[in-house]
Design a protein that fits this description.
With 520 residues, the chain is mainly alpha-helical. It contains 19 helices and two strands. Strands 1-2 form a two-stranded antiparallel ribbon.
């Protein structure tokens, strides 16, 4: 079943080889050129292009390995000065490389499936009478055919499937009780893309509580606990040393850190992620418009936040936000979740829930969050969605809203039908496949969702019609070109905030040992 799904989805990926590609295509081509044409000492100093390497060293080595193969497709793509080079062989190689790397995602799904097999869930009677659909097979489709991964990786162009596959391997290892193995793969993941540090608090709390702290006769065995803590820290340190060691020896650690954490990029990405700061920015703009209307002589810099540029800017009415403020909000919002995880030992599913919530908190309140980071929430949620009805309800709503927020990434007319059809098919399958696993009350077109949630999703349809038809038909785009992005981020932020809060409440209300391996 797993291989069939992967094969069918891969065929679909081959069909979009000539589709639109974003600047990320050139970013990764340039990284191939940097790592192939320069010694390692120049990797994080090369500035021939604005697309400098800003991922950790393991990903730079990953690009280097790809470049060794790319040389046999078209060596010209590896030229530092060949900016925006996109010969047919270059396109084929880069597209094929993403599809091939999705084998890691396939392996991650298999690891999770092994956990489900060893810990079978108890199915309730199927409302839709589709007895062939199991939690594992539904999970395979939700991940391998994920709409967001498809458009972001195989049209827009990135390697998220490869990275999320490693995440699933790490999660599966920990759920099986292989704590050190899970920690190792997470350490590797962090050194491939440091944004996964969002999840690190959940990993740290769970591993210390469930692996390091050993009790004998009701008391903590200090010697054994310290030994286990040493082994855990050793794994992380060894991986970090292998990754950063060469650059430390070359005296380049400062330069590497500056590349990885460019705080001067501003609070929000040029395309706002649908989080709390999108809501905050819009409120600030609305208040500023009111002030200017009431006091016409008041100066207000027009279009600064919505210029489409990555830059720092000050809020006009509301207090301006700085990295320290976002860091404090992220930590504070995580604390209840981490405390719940600490006082609920022995439940690996609580660990996955904590990973989801820690990532959600970072997404909502983090500094310069990219809209594509929503996939880091959706993929782990796919696992929990097939194990519990309450979580299936949250996932269904969150997934539709999160995927809708990614639609403006693919703005070309040729791909309009593709993204619309694929989102409709994937969302329909998700809703009715999950409904088949659980007894659900039907309040509208979406069986798992409430009336209010159905109404909110209907608003997405109206927003889609405005952005893709009315906005251009009535030439609103000539004066307000970034209005669709603003509206998408603002409207979707409500859905993301709502579903995150709902999931948080569900998790906090769970008993310590509740729902370990059974469907509810």
């Amino acid at each position: 079943m797993l291989l069939r799904i992967f094969g069918l989805v891969s065929c679909l990926k081959f069909l979009v080889l000539p589709a639109y590609k974003s600047t990320d295509f050139e970013v990764h081509r340039n990284w191939l050129a940097i790592t192939f044409s320069n010694p390692i000492s120049r990797w994080y100093f090369e500035e021939s292009s604005i697309w400098t390497i800003d991922y950790p060293p393991f990903f730079a080595w990953f690009e280097y390995l790809l470049s060794l193969v790319a040389y046999f497709f078209d060596s010209d793509m590896l030229g530092i000065r060949n900016q925006n080079y996109d010969s047919p062989y270059t396109i084929y190689f880069q597209r094929f490389s993403v599809i091939a790397c999705d084998l890691v995602l396939l392996y991650g799904c298999k690891e999770v499936s092994d956990f489900m097999t060893a810990n079978p869930v108890r199915r309730k009677s199927s409302k839709w009478k589709l007895k062939w659909r199991s939690p594992a097979s539904t999970f395979f489709v939700l991940v391998l055919a994920n709409f967001g991964l498809f458009i972001v990786d195989h049209i827009h162009f990135q390697y998220n499937g490869f990275l999320l596959g490693i995440l699933l391997v790490s999660i599966a290892k920990i759920m099986k009780g292989h704590h050190l193995s899970g920690a190792f793969w997470f350490a590797v993941l962090l050194n491939l893309k440091h944004i996964y540090i969002y999840m690190a608090p959940a990993y740290g709390v769970y591993l210390i509580r469930n692996y390091c702290l050993v009790r004998k006769r009701g008391k903590i065995d200090m010697l054994t606990s310290l030994w286990r803590l040493t082994k855990l820290a050793g794994i992380g340190s060894v991986v970090l040393f292998i990754s950063f060691g060469p650059f430390v020896f070359m005296g380049q650690l400062k330069q590497l850190i500056l590349r990885l954490f460019p705080f001067k990029r501003g609070l929000c990405h040029s395309y706002w992620a649908p989080n709390f700061w999108a809501f905050y920015n819009v409120i600030d703009k609305m208040l500023s418009k009111i002030i200017v209307f009431l006091y016409p002589d008041t100066y207000y810099p027009q279009g600064v936040m919505t210029s489409g540029l990555v830059q720092e800017y000050e809020h006009y009415i509301l207090p301006s936000i700085y990295p320290s403020v976002t860091a404090a909000l992220v930590v504070i919002s995580m604390m209840p979740c981490l405390w719940k995880l600490w006082v609920s030992p022995g439940n690996p599913l609580h660990f996955v829930r904590a990973v989801i919530l820690c990532t959600s908190c970072s997404f909502l309140f983090g500094w310069h969050v990219h809209e594509k980071a929503v996939l880091m929430i959706i993929i782990p949620q796919s696992l929990m969605a097939v194990l519990g009805q309450k979580e299936a309800e949250v996932f269904s709503f969150f997934s539709i809203v999160g995927h809708f927020s990614l639609l403006p990434l693919i703005y070309t007319q040729n791909e309009f039908i593709i993204k619309l059809v694929l989102l409709t098919i994937y969302s329909s399958y998700m809703i009715y496949a999950l409904a088949d696993l659980f007894r659900s009350r039907c309040y509208g077109p979406f069986p798992l969702l409430s009336i209010q949630e159905n109404i909110y999703l209907a608003g997405l349809i109206l927003l889609f019609i405005y952005e893709n038809i009315i906005h251009t038909l009535y030439k609103v785009n000539e004066r307000y070109p970034f209005l669709p992005l603003l509206l998408t981020s603002f409207y979707c932020s409500f859905g993301i905030i709502y579903s995150t809060f709902k999931y948080y409440v569900i998790f906090i209300k769970m008993k310590a040992s509740e729902h370990k391996h059974k469907m509810y």
